[in-house]
Task: inverse folding
């Protein structure tokens, strides 16, 4: 049984989303203080695995691209998964193709590679890289479970992130949200606002103690991004409600968003905060 | 579950027709055979250079390193082992590229070029914002600077990072010390600002320098955009962004402080 990851991402397999994976890895490298050479290898190999999902997994169509990142004491584990038609039949007879080079690149850069059949079909590429973090994470602070499946509609513009511990979210969330803001044609003004929201969400998740993890589902449209934060423990949700009302100057969420609402009763044990930002320029 | 060690791997069906003959001819002293081999595998070196993560390095430099790797692979390859050349060449070329990225001088070189790029981004942001009367998008910056959008995203992380203080040098055309200007504004409007807020927060805000407080007020009370604030204060939008992030982080730390002790 593999150890649970620190980061889980469920994206659409569109090629533009691979930048989210690369930025998440860069965020991890920032937080763990990994060397630039090491993270270049990991980003390169992960890009190849994701490219394969973008191009081949759904025979030209769309489907989920799942990525997990596990920060271990002396290694970084990256899992790239699809639920398409499977990788192995595609390897055979395509050795000269781009796919052949992609796999060879992964094998040259990773310490260990596994190809698995995930439940429900598809392919899982599990890559392990030698990485010695100068600043490690607390062991055991990993994700309890993968986030629930989002509604299938609009998958191409929906990205799901689960990150633990929240210290990791501080460096990963601003980066991935910047990529999504670029997709949504936000100006640099609004991107900065979104980055401040990411800072605030990561801080709230940490401040509230509890499970020390952050789950964010982002729905991206042109000039509009909706963030669904949670499910959160009741205390965190209430803190965010007050933040959303602008009662706390240290937490600017309310002033930076165009809409805020809570899904679930305010006193419930778990609630979801929904925030919407539109580009104003 | 199939665990695969990262040893050179043979791909079935790989076209090695003529490859062994060429290696044989070259080993026998035919210099032209080597040239044919170099030409044949240069596209592979190019493909690897292109695919290696090069957000921080010009492609031409990387291509040169990949070509060095290809030449090394050609010299070291033993056709008698029966593997196609490509299965040996890919890890060898990548090995050369990785060595290049791990070179001690490289990280210094990269931090310098990423600083340069951050400065370019800051300037471009200001030029486009003053031309259009609104801040540019990432795509617009990418087109303007002829850079990949992901390079812009990366540069945005650098300029918005908390500790990019070296980017805060006064800019041409701005007041001599722009932040002194912000300071003055903060003092004038202090009372106005504090009235807006809950009394218990006044003490926390009191620990924030006046210039940061005034930027905070412009963004959150007056609801100015960062570009508008930058205009007023005479600094870049990126610097406003960074100051806001820093100040909010500080407020959070101050707000949490008493609860923890």
Result:
């Amino acid at each position: 049984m593999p150890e649970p990851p620190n980061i889980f991402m469920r994206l659409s397999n569109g090629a533009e989303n691979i930048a989210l994976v690369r930025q998440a890895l860069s965020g991890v490298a920032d937080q763990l203080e990994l060397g630039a050479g090491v993270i270049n290898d990991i980003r390169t190999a992960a890009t190849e695995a994701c490219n394969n999902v973008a191009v081949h997994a759904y025979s030209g169509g769309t489907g989920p691209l799942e990525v997990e990142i596990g920060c271990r004491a002396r290694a970084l584990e990256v899992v790239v998964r699809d639920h398409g038609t499977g990788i192995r039949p595609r390897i055979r007879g395509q050795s000269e193709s781009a796919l052949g080079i992609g796999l060879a690149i992964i094998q040259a850069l990773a310490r260990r590679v596994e190809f698995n059949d995930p439940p429900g079909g598809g392919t899982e590429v599990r890559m392990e890289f030698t990485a010695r973090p100068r600043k490690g994470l607390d062991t055991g602070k990993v994700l309890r479970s993968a986030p629930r499946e989002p509604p299938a509609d609009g998958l191409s513009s929906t990205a799901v992130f689960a990150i633990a511990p929240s210290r990791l979210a501080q460096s990963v969330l601003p980066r991935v949200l910047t990529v999504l803001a670029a997709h949504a044609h936000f100006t640099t003004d609004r991107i900065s606002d979104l980055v401040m929201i990411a800072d605030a969400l990561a801080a709230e998740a940490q401040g509230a103690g509890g499970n020390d993890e952050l789950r964010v589902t982002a729905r991206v449209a042109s000039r509009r991004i909706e963030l669904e934060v949670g499910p959160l423990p009741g205390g965190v949700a209430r803190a965010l409600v007050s933040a959303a009302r602008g009662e706390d100057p240290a937490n600017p969420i309310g002033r930076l968003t165009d809409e805020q609402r809570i899904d679930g009763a305010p006193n419930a044990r778990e609630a979801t905060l929904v925030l919407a930002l539109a580009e104003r320029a | 579950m199939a665990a695969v060690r990262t040893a050179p791997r043979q791909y079935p069906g790989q076209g090695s027709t003529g490859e062994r003959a060429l290696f044989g001819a070259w080993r026998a002293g035919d210099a032209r055979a080597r040239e044919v081999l170099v030409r044949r595998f240069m596209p592979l070196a190019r493909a690897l250079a292109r695919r290696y993560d090069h957000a921080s390095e010009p492609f031409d430099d990387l291509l040169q390193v990949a070509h060095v790797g290809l030449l090394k692979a050609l010299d070291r390859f033993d056709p008698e082992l029966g593997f196609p050349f490509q299965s040996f060449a890919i890890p060898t070329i990548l090995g050369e590229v990785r060595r290049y990225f791990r070179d001690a001088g490289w990280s210094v070189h990269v931090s310098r070029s990423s600083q340069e790029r951050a400065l370019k981004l800051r300037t471009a942001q200001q030029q486009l914002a003053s031309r259009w009367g609104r801040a540019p998008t990432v795509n617009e910056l990418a087109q303007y600077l002829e850079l990949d959008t992901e390079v812009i995203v990366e540069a945005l992380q650098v300029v918005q990072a908390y500790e990019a203080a070296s980017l805060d040098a006064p800019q041409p055309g701005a007041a001599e010390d722009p932040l002194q200007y912000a300071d003055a504004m903060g003092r004038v409007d202090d009372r106005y600002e504090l009235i807006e807020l809950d009394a218990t927060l006044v003490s926390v805000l009191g620990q924030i320098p006046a210039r940061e407080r005034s930027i905070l007020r412009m963004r959150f009370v007056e609801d100015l955009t960062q570009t508008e604030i930058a205009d007023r204060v005479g600094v870049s939008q990126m610097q406003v962004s960074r100051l806001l992030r820093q100040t909010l982080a500080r407020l959070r730390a101050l707000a949490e402080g008493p609860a923890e002790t």
Remarks:
- Residues 7-130 of chain A form a domain with the Heat Shock Protein 90 fold (CATH 3.30.565.10).
- The longest strand of chain A covers residues 224-233.
